[in-house]
TrEMBL record:
CDD domains: HTH_XRE. Pfam families: DUF5753, HTH_31. GO terms for molecular function: DNA binding. This is Helix-turn-helix domain-containing protein. It comes from Nocardia uniformis. It comes from the Bacteria.
Length: 282
């Protein structure tokens, strides 16, 4: 069960209690609100998230108008936790990068696991340009590529801020994902070789031949209170302690198998060597 699922379940149980306290059956509430009876059941079981108007009708019928502001705030929090990319990028992709910077600077420790491409903080300008161009093409929204790339590059300044430390895990497969032409891909790999030496960044490469842990998506952990997960259609914000614990467990298992320092450089260099001897990092 996700953070959003749990919130829907708890909200439904709360609405059920309000109905029962008012001495109203589900059938009677549905009739008064002019809803199908199944709607009441779905809301109370956490299968359907009520709209703000639904909440207003529910509270009016149950005589619990004083509860409405808090219930509406709960629903709005659910919508904030699950944001579709089309909504996030409706005003362009650059604002999304700037919002990311605000979250970056709010945390002293940022950890994450990325596949199939390196984290935004670790991307070269050419690589970021290719990635964001693909994102704009796939998701749609305003085509503000140049501004989005500049905003992403500015986000990377936080990597050198002494108030922050990054411990990032990169799947070895990301070293081989085809992004742009050979020059772009090799430039990105050479950059990762440099990142391994940076004092504020701990970069681990999770090898291809690792032990299976669980089906794990890319995720980023901000201190120990917030996690961002990107799916094909949306960005999830996770704050529920029980769910955070699963990501901490996954993180620890991945981190235990990651290669660091010289061993990480060997894996990155192998990806460069595969491009041809003329592209070997010097």
């Amino acid at each position: 069960m996700t953070d959003i699922d749990e919130t829907r379940r708890v909200l439904g149980a709360r609405l059920r209690e309000l109905r029962k306290q008012a001495g109203i059956t589900g059938v009677a509430l549905a009739r008064s609100a002019e809803w199908p009876q199944s709607k009441v059941s779905k809301i109370e079981c956490g299968q359907q998230l009520p709209s703000e108007q639904d909440l207003a009708d529910w509270c009016r019928i149950a005589g619990a108008d004083f509860q409405l502001p808090d219930l509406i705030a709960t629903v709005r929090n659910v919508h904030a936790a699950y944001q579709e990319w089309k909504r996030i990028t409706a005003g362009g992709h650059a604002p999304r990068q700037r919002r990311g910077l605000r979250l970056d600077t709010s945390a002293s420790l940022i950890r994450g696991y990325a596949q199939p491409i390196p984290f935004a903080w670790l991307q070269t300008r050419d690589y970021a340009t290719e990635i964001l161009a693909r994102c704009i093409e796939f998701v749609g929204g305003t085509d503000d590529l140049a501004d989005a790339v500049n905003s992403r590059i500015r986000r990377q300044q936080v990597l050198h801020d002494p108030k922050h430390h990054f411990h990032l895990l990169l799947d070895q497969a990301a070293l081989y994902t085809r992004v742009g032409d050979e020059a772009v891909r090799v430039g990105q790999l050479r950059h990762l070789l440099e990142v391994v030496t940076w004092p504020r960044v701990t970069l681990g490469i999770v090898p291809l031949e690792r032990e299976f842990i669980y089906v794990i998506p890319s995720f980023t952990m901000f201190d120990r209170h917030t996690i961002r997960v990107e799916t094909v259609s949306a960005e999830l914000t996770i704050t529920q302690p029980r769910e955070l614990a699963y990501y901490e467990k996954a993180w620890a298992a991945l981190q235990a198998q990651a290669a660091y320092g010289a061993a990480a450089r060997v894996l990155i260099q192998a990806a460069i060597d595969r491009r041809g001897s003329d592209t070997r990092y010097r």
